[in-house]
What does this fold into?
Amino acid sequence: MPPTRYRCNACGNLTRFDVTTDRRTRAFHHYSVGGALSVENEVVLREDVIEVSCRWCGHGRAVEAIEPGAAEAGGAGQAGAVGVPAAQANPGPGTPGTPGTSGASGPGTPG
It folds into this structure.
């Protein structure tokens, strides 16, 4: 299964996110005679995404998971907000930094 891609609807970011996960793993711990630990053969048994926030604008409520290929095609695909009720998932019109609003500026935009 490919890794989950995210999009921030507040600023348009597709590449930088802070992702908090809860992960349960099984691994072989190999200690040297000197006590140095080497972790080998780590297998992820379960992984739950707790929170995703945009690294550019700090917005967490506007981040959504997108289908593989949707970012490259420029389409929204099947998207859903990460860990946020649907009523809070999308910022209202005129939100500062929202693409398409006048005077919006953000990372990568001149000005």
Q: What stands out?
A: The CA atoms of residues 69 and 75 lie 9 Å apart.
